[in-house]
Amino acid sequence: MCLKCILKHADSCAHGGIYSVDHRLVKVDCSSNVNPLGIPRAAIEAIKKNVGRISPVYPDSECKDLKAALSRFLSVSTSQLTVGNGAVEIIYWFCQLYAKKRVVIPVPTFCEYEVAARRTGAKTTFVALNDSFRLDPNLLIEKSRGADAIFLCNPNNPTGMLSTKDVKKVIKNLDSSTKILLDECFIELVDKPEANTLIERIGEFENLVILRSLTKSFGMAGLRVGYSVSSPIIAAKFSEAKIPWNVNGLAQVAAIAALSDAAHVDRAREIIKKERQCLYSRIKKLENFVPIESDANYFLVRLKKADSTSFRDLMLKKTGVLVRDCSTFTGMDSSYIRVAVRTRKENMLLLRALEEMDDV
Ligand SMILES: Cc1ncc(COP(=O)(O)O)c(C=O)c1O
Fold first, then answer.
1. How does pLDDT run across 137-176, given as a tens digit for each residue?
2. The CATH number of the domain where 290 resides is what?
3. What is the tally of structural domains in the chain?
4. Residue pLDDT, tens place only, 258-286
5. Nearest atom of ligand 1 to the alpha carbon of 157
6. 258 and 40 in contact (C-beta within 8 Å)?
7. Which of the listed residues 260, 283, 305 is the one where a domain comes to its end?
């Protein structure tokens, strides 16, 4: 990846989602990567049941009941947990606390690491993934010498690829003074989350923060609940950084109800596994698209002919199907889009839209 591509978007951070375009045009959103089954019924019922009681009162600033539910769900202590208004809020606290002079970011990846680090005045060292979008652990370790912090995303966004072995190698070989934010926001939607998560090893690394999100796993993007698992010392520092009542009351009860329905995520994982393979192989047969293999609920598609921004806009206008234009990812050019793996019906609409665009 060229330096020009890496520097191109250094000061901006665009996202997918229906509000990234004229939302009235969107019939199927394949640009955001949330659980294809949406929010669990139990969470909707909890909101309906509690809206009258909860809306007039201030929420629990400490999210005690939610932390207790997360503690049971993850088998970690509540003192290791931090709850944020989405995982993104925790990324900003992490940078506020630890990104002082320089941070290391493998690219392409989720853009908020870069923006949050810049806000604290830290310099960013971008380390490009190789041409197959893989991490070079040795290079990362070398570039991280003397850095305040490093960001790792497993599976990575936008590639959807897991690099658990390389991530472990990097974490083990970093100086303990370098803080690590390991973003596992999509890990519950890969085929084998338990074989890839580092949550049960959190006690081994005082400098590690593992980030998770109910946005993705339980389809709750609009409610905004994310959390992290870290040492109790880091969790206490996060607690000092937060504003009061950062997670609203309805989001808290919905999250507690969602966590009681872990089978919801298991069902989504089964669908994603089957649908990802089906969608991938059908796209592969098309003339002008090259799908890139992924472990998650989304994957990249290389466009042989089109520019990704005009492609996204034209496809939305013609078909009502929205995909993620990847030209805004640092380290990427305008030849990729990212598609989410959704239910069979929605995936077929995406496929039909791509077929229609294949002739354009
Ligand atoms: C890798 C990654 N981490 C974190 C987030 C933010 O998650 P949340 O919605 O919980 O703030 C996103 C959102 O797209 C993401 O892609």
1. 999 999 999 999 999 999 999 999 999 999 999 999 999 9
2. 3.90.1150.10
3. 2
4. 999 999 999 999 999 999 999 999 999 99
5. 1
6. yes
7. 260
